[in-house]
């Protein structure tokens, strides 16, 4: 994807979206089933309930390219960071620069508020770990299943 195409990416709040939550959950399941199932076991009812409670509409923004919704993310304010709790792209939209463009936008937003962007991902999700490290994220904590990252803040020592 060229820079002209990535500049056409729009981030649209869920409140202005025409996509329903079941469509969002379907992408959640498609993207995370493997990691959740191998880590905790997948329980459909539990995951639907957790999705509803953990990712409220005000925190969700759609990633739109042209007229197509290619993914979404969930973002919330924490006391010491802007926290990205979810970033999902349709499989055909991965590895095209869309995620990188979205992440640069979110990192700029966080930096403008004087905070880092934080996020966690499954330790077993090697593609995500590589992606975040290439963007300059640094690991700050790790447990049995997850690794937490923070972005550097321009002008501050890391």
TrEMBL record:
<keyword id="KW-0689">Ribosomal protein</keyword>
<protein>
    <submittedName>
        <fullName>Ribosomal protein S18 acetylase RimI</fullName>
    </submittedName>
</protein>
<keyword id="KW-0687">Ribonucleoprotein</keyword>
<dbReference type="InterPro" id="IPR000182">
    <property type="entry name" value="GNAT_dom"/>
</dbReference>
<dbReference type="GO" id="GO:0016747">
    <property type="term" value="F:acyltransferase activity, transferring groups other than amino-acyl groups"/>
</dbReference>
<dbReference type="GO" id="GO:0005840">
    <property type="term" value="C:ribosome"/>
</dbReference>
<dbReference type="InterPro" id="IPR016181">
    <property type="entry name" value="Acyl_CoA_acyltransferase"/>
</dbReference>
<dbReference type="Pfam" id="PF00583">
    <property type="entry name" value="Acetyltransf_1"/>
</dbReference>
<feature type="domain" description="N-acetyltransferase">
    <location>
        <begin position="12"/>
        <end position="154"/>
    </location>
</feature>
């Amino acid at each position: 994807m060229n820079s002209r195409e990535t500049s056409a990416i729009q981030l649209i709040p869920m409140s202005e979206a025409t996509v329903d939550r079941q469509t969002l959950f379907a992408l959640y399941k498609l993207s995370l089933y493997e990691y959740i199932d191998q880590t905790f076991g997948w329980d459909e009812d539990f995951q639907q309930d957790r999705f509803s409670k953990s990712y409220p509409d005000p925190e969700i923004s759609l990633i739109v390219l042209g007229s197509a919704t290619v993914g979404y993310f969930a973002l919330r304010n924490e006391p010491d960071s802007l926290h990205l709790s979810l970033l999902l792209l349709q499989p055909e939209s991965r590895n095209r620069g869309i995620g990188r463009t979205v992440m640069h936008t979110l990192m700029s937003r966080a930096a403008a508020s004087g905070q880092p962007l934080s996020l966690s991902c499954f330790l077993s999700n090697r593609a995500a770990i590589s992606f975040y490290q290439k963007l300059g994220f640094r690991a700050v904590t790790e447990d049995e299943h997850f690794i937490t990252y923070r972005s550097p803040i321009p002008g501050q020592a890391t």
